[in-house]
Amino acid sequence: MLLVGEGDFSFSASLARAFGSATNMIATSLDSRGFLLRNYKKAIANLHELRVRGCIVLHGIDATEIANHSYLGAFKFDRIIYNFPHAGFCSDEPGESQKRRHQLLISLFLKNAKEMIEERGEIHVTHKSNAFFRAWNLEGLAAAVGLRLIREVPFNFTDYPGYRTKYGFGGDKNFNCNPSKTYKFGLFPIMSP
Q1: E-assigned strand segments in 13-97
Q2: Confidence band of 131 (pLDDT split at 50, 70, 90)
Q3: pTM for this structure?
Q4: Which of 83-87, 94-98, 126-130, 160-164 shows the lowest mean pLDDT across its residues?
Q5: Which Gene Ontology MF annotations are present (predicted)?
Q6: How many Å from the N-terminal Cα to the C-terminal Cα in the chain?
Q7: 16, 18, 81: which is closest to 53 by C-alpha?
Q8: What is the C-alpha separation between 102 and 46, in angstroms, rounded?
Q9: In terms of C-beta distances under 8 Å and separation of at least 24 residues, what long-range contacts does 30-36 make, across chains too?
Q10: β-strand pairing of 117-128 with 147-154
Q11: CA distances, 28 to each of 42, 129, 157 (Å)
Q12: CATH dotted code for 2-187
């Protein structure tokens, strides 16, 4: 299992506790370890928990380039998870332009993740499912890179004890993730001749 875009690593730590072990997990963040320690008060505890449970933790990992990463690119995964992808805020940027920037992030992530999943593997993207966020059209972005929607399910962060939604620009505030859904994408079945 590969987790990308982790904030304070509370989601991956929650999974590790639920599984009892994290030897089957690689958890990554775009941010450096130093940034996490300066900005998220629970990051140290979450990183420690993951390492104790056998998780590989990597920093400075760009979700839009994972297939070409010297280490990660060598693996195939059953699950690749990206919770609440967001390309950042630009208050002076028109809404349509912001939407396109977010769509590009998700599209490039999906294109990379597609190269890294097993034949029956899944790519999970958890995403807010109201107003502005619905317009990002995750299903269309996935179809454009050759993925199919397997199913979408409501996301409830309380199902993951200890998980805290964090803004990617730092600060230790949680954002309201309701309502949200997890969209599960996979490869199209290979048709036999």
Answers
A1: 26-29, 56-59, 77-83
A2: confident
A3: 0.94
A4: 94-98
A5: rRNA (uridine-N3-)-methyltransferase activity
A6: 32
A7: 16
A8: 27
A9: 30/5, 30/60, 30/61, 30/62, 30/63, 30/168, 31/59, 31/60, 31/168, 32/59, 32/60, 33/59, 35/170, 36/8, 36/9
A10: unpaired
A11: 16, 24, 19
A12: 3.40.50.150
CA 67 – CA 49 distance, rounded (Å): 27
For residue 174, pLDDT beyond 90: no
Distance CA 125, CA 127 (A): 6
- Tell whether the model's pLDDT for residue 168 goes beyond 90: no
Domains of the chain, residue spans:
2-187
Burial per residue of 107-135, b for 16 or more beta-carbon CB atoms within 10 angstroms, e otherwise:
bbbbbbbbebbeeebbbbbbbbbeeebee
Could you tell me the two tokens for 125?
Answer: 């993207």
Tens of pLDDT, residues 4-16: 999 999 999 999 9
Contacts of 8 (CB under 8 A, 6+ apart): 36, 40, 42, 43, 46, 164, 166, 172
Q: Which two tokens stand for residue 98?
A: 């912001």
Q: Residue 53 has which token pair?
A: 């449970």
SS3 96: helix
pLDDT tier at 132, thresholds 50, 70, 90 = confident
Q: pLDDT (tens digit, 9 = 90+) per residue, 40-85? A: 999 999 999 999 999 999 999 999 999 999 999 999 999 999 999 9
* Radius of gyration over every alpha carbon of the chain, rounded to an integer in angstroms: 16
